[in-house]
Amino acid sequence: MAEQKKQSVLFQHGTLSLLVPGLFAGTMTVGELLQHGNYGIGTVQDFNGELVVLDGHAYQVVESGAVNELSAEQSVPFATVHFDDPVAQIELTNLNKAEVERYLLEHYPFRNVFFAVKITGEFAHMHTRVVEEQQKPYPTLTEATKTQPKFNQDNIHGTLIGYYAPELFQGVAVSGYHVHFLSDDRKTIGGHILDYRLTKGQVAIQPFATLEQHFPLSNADFRNQNFNYDGMSQSINQAEK
Predict the structure, then answer these.
(1) Please, are residues 21 and 140 in contact by the beta-carbon 8 Å criterion?
(2) Domain count, the chain
């Protein structure tokens, strides 16, 4: 019973909204994060690239396109993870990103909850981007994402992982889908997904009964930040979608 509860929990450290004013300092170690889930996404200390957590390993895709496996001592300002335990697995073929996302919302009754999406398979095309490392004093999210290297790869096998969040939770997360990718060889292509075409893949979906929201309470910058929520949703959408 306890294990089932653990698997129905989505754990999130930080909120997407804390990135808007530029709170990019790492406030949780990777080692601690992986105690709460073996799959997930996020970003890394100094907003340095895209975080992809697969099968208990944390990978960082940096602005050059290179992929590094993160050590337990490295840290993250914002990340979301869960223990993989899908309620449904299906095979889909020859669909693009929008078609896959629409299919899941039309066929599964989860549009009002958080759910994880995992796709393992062959992609006819994958289009990603990666945020660039920032230096203190940190800029705002809007400034930091003005330049984002983009990558394209055809006929690539790998794993898509990410989440759907109801519109009610915009700011905690980005409403709608937020998904990352990493190729099977852990080096060809990865990052935040802008678009893709799926040739053939196993699609897994996992809804969550509980969102465990963890705040960086020991971080003075977070505690003292006077968040301006005017325009926050627009900043998030501009940076994340």
Answers:
(1) yes
(2) 1
